[in-house]
């Protein structure tokens, strides 16, 4: 296994050749940023790696791939830098190194999350509430999930601060944020250089499938988060505790988000299994797949909980769903989830350029 220094050196070698060639300048945001440099410090390479969305179009267009002696594979080189940088920047770093490359640890952490919730359901007395609160009191849910929500925010915040310092980010203006969020919302870098999509599935086939899958996951997650936020406001500010009806705002947002999460994660797993692993970071394949599966299970278990919430299965489904959510939040800073934050930071830094 390559060290972080070796990964950076290989990416530097390939970036210098690409900088001399310049054939792929219009493919994505990586190449204008790459061609703006004469030499590549470690921070430059980290920034380029997090701008890269691994669409692989540049590889199939390149005349210097194997069997040429230059043996370029820029998507893999940047994927390795990206993966290694996430481990180096993670807080705490040991957790980043453990989870980034180990899908089994993700699965074990998920099982532990389930077990804790099952234990809580059995140990805590019912408070006589309605719906889910009849199985697990509201205060107990808050006590469990508030720290689990705050921890990843602190961890990711520290990691992004390290990233910003490493890439030489400057004070952020509103225009930088508008440009970066606009690109993220459209998944601009997954459209390909000519807007035909990327080559993730097949070298000669352009497709928007991966962009659409990412959009479904992103907007599904945001809708689920919005549902939780609205329910929180309704509970504490408006005195309207759960359960909520089918046509209430929390349910409309949550069910829509859950459907998008399940569809998007399913599509991403299908695409990932069909893709050529030689263009990504091979050691992280299992962990990435496990985390996408976990996120999809969060959406699926939430939908099942709503559908069967009035049956005897409700306590078990509630424990499974909340256990998955708990595992998701605690693992978020050390898994594939972190890439969204790093790529957004990279887009902000690129907007400054």
From TrEMBL:
Q: Which UniProt keywords apply?
A: Membrane, Transmembrane, Transmembrane helix
Q: What is this protein called?
A: Citrate/tricarballylate utilization protein
Q: Which SUPFAM superfamilies match?
A: 4Fe-4S ferredoxins, Respiratory nitrate reductase 1 gamma chain
NCBIfam families associated with the record: CitB
**Membrane-spanning ranges:** 103-121, 141-160, 216-237, 252-273, 285-306, 312-334
Q: Which domain of life is it from?
A: Bacteria
Which organism was this protein described from? Donghicola tyrosinivorans
Under InterPro entries, the record lists:
Citrate_utilization_prot_B, NarG-like_sf
């Amino acid at each position: 296994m390559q060290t972080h220094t070796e990964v950076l050196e290989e990416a530097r070698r390939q970036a210098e050749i690409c900088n001399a060639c310049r054939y792929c300048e219009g493919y994505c945001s990586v190449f204008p940023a790459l061609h703006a440099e004469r030499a590549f410090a470690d921070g430059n390479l980290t920034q380029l790696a997090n701008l890269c969305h691994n669409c692989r179009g540049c590889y199939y267009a390149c005349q210097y791939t194997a069997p040429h002696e230059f043996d370029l594979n820029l998507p893999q080189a940047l994927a390795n830098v990206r993966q290694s940088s996430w481990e180096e920047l993670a807080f705490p770093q040991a957790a980043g190194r453990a989870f980034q490359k180990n899908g089994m640890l993700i699965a074990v952490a998920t099982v532990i999350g389930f077990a804790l919730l099952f234990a809580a359901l059995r140990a805590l007395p019912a408070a006589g509430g309605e719906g889910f609160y009849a199985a697990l009191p509201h205060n107990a849910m808050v006590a469990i999930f508030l720290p689990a929500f705050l921890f990843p925010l602190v961890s990711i915040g520290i990691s992004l601060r390290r990233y910003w310092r490493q890439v030489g980010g400057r004070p952020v203006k509103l225009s930088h944020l508008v440009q970066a969020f606009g690109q993220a919302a459209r998944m601009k870098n997954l459209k390909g250089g000519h807007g035909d999509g990327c080559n993730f599935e097949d070298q000669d086939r352009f497709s928007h499938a991966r962009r659409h899958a990412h959009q479904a996951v992103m907007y599904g997650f945001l809708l689920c988060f919005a549902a939780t936020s609205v329910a929180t406001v309704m509970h504490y500010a408006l005195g309207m505790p759960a359960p909520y009806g089918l046509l209430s705002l929390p349910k409309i947002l949550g069910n829509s988000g859950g459907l998008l999460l399940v569809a998007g994660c399913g599509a991403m797993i299908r695409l990932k299994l069909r893709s050529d692993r030689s263009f990504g970071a091979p050691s992280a394949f299992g962990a990435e797949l496990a985390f996408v599966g976990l996120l999809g299970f969060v959406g699926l278990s939430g939908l099942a909980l709503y559908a069967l919430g009035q049956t005897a299965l409700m306590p078990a489904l509630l424990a499974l769903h909340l256990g998955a959510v708990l595992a998701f939040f605690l693992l978020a800073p050390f898994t594939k989830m972190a890439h969204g934050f790093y790529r957004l930071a990279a887009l902000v830094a690129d907007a400054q350029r």
